[in-house]
Specification:
Layout: H1 2-32, H2 79-89, H3 97-100, E1 126-128, E2 131-134, H4 146-150, H5 155-167, E3 171-172, H6 175-184, E4 192-199, H7 202-214, E5 220-223, H8 225-229, H9 238-246, E6 250-253, H10 266-284, E7 290-292, H11 300-308, E8 313-319, E9 322-324, E10 331-335, H12 342-350
Parallel strand pairs: 2-4, 2-10, 3-4, 4-5, 5-6, 7-8, 8-10
Antiparallel strand pairs: 1-9
């Protein structure tokens, strides 16, 4: 009988200890935020008396995505347990990579200006694409010198030239299309022609731009950036350039101050070529890719620096209409003078040069 009592006493003591241990494990999991199925590797020493009740303040969870709503009643949690519970039960928001990047400078869709140079396919090409070279688009003053008179085309003559080009089946394209055709064989219209203006005179905006826009004909302006920055009255303003860019007129580089680029040091060429490029990009939000050599002066070092500045091609003052894919930095052009009437223009475009 005595042995049976002792055996029952041992069982009772074991049950008491097991119950206390189970209570402690459950309490620790609840306080630490353990979920069902979590394991506890070791338990601290057993307490002989229950722990006092914890007085904890609930954590208010608010959302910035929608107005605050009344939350249903819930057990009070410790700060640590509340953090664990939020991590376990909240639905993660999808992260947008675009939201983490700086907002890009908006570009004007009307320009359709590609960002990357066309990758050459290795095929050597010679294309016949006349590039017209204009300067002033106005009637010269009576006291104008021989150069001003020679480089001036009146608005009336320019309008007649454009109409004759259209009547003869020519289609105006931009230099981005031309370089794509040279390097990749991209298609061009049957009779393409490029219209360019050197220097960036204000009469290009006042007189040439409305005539081009009315006929939906693109063109390219090679601007001297320091002259615009200095607000010279005979030259464009940046607002004028922005307006034309939005309407499909390409704004490209003609250096910073129209000085010769031949026989110059690297630092000077970088200042001229990269400086004008970055100014245009800053003012207009698009990076120019084409260069016109001031007065047609350049050498191989000029080409090397222009290429390293990530220009794609350059226009010269050499007369001709044949363009070679192996020499994109020596594009020939056809000079249009104040004596070039529409018949003369069509004749020049038909020459095999």
């Amino acid at each position: 009988m005595g042995s049976e009592v002792k055996q029952l006493a041992r069982k009772a003591e074991s049950a008491l200890r097991y119950g206390a241990l189970a209570w402690l494990v459950v309490s620790l999991c609840w306080l630490g935020g353990c979920s069902r199925g979590d394991s506890v590797s070791a338990a601290p020493a057993l307490a002989t008396t229950p722990s006092p009740a914890l007085e904890l303040t609930p954590i208010a969870i608010t959302s910035t995505a929608s107005p605050a709503k009344t939350q249903p009643a819930r057990p009070s949690l410790s700060p640590a347990a509340a953090v664990v519970e939020r991590a376990a039960t909240s639905t993660p928001r999808p992260v947008s990579l675009a939201g983490l990047l700086p907002t890009p400078t908006p570009t004007l869709a009307a320009t359709s200006q590609p960002t990357y140079a066309p990758t050459p396919d290795g095929v050597a090409r010679t294309l016949r694409v006349p590039i017209l070279m204009y300067h002033y688009l106005s009637t010269p003053p009576d006291d104008a010198d021989i150069y001003r008179r020679d480089l001036s085309v009146s608005p009336e003559l320019f309008a007649a030239q454009l109409d004759r080009l259209l009547a003869e089946g020519y289609t105006a394209v931009n230099l981005y299309q031309v370089i794509d055709a040279l390097q990749r064989g991209a298609p061009l219209p049957e009779k393409p022609v490029v219209i360019t203006f050197d220097d960036g005179y204000r009469d290009n905006y006042e007189n040439a731009f409305p005539l081009l826009h009315a006929r939906n004909m693109p063109a390219t302006l090679f601007v001297v950036t320091d002259f615009i920055d200095e607000q010279r009255p005979d030259y464009l303003t940046w607002d004028m350039a922005r307006t034309m860019l939005a309407a499909g007129i390409s704004i490209e580089s003609h250096s910073r101050n129209h000085a010769s680029l031949a026989d110059q040091g690297d630092d000077y060429l970088v200042w001229q070529l990269l400086g004008s490029l970055e100014t245009i990009e800053y003012e207009l939000g698009v990076r120019p890719r084409f260069l016109s050599y001031p007065a047609g002066d350049y050498d191989q070092r000029t080409i090397d620096i222009a290429r390293s500045a990530n220009y794609w091609a350059a226009a010269t003052t050499k007369q001709g209409a044949l363009l070679n894919s192996d020499h994109p930095f020596e594009l020939s052009r056809i000079r249009v003078r104040n004596t070039t009437d529409p018949d003369d223009l069509i004749r020049l475009l038909s020459l095999d040069w």
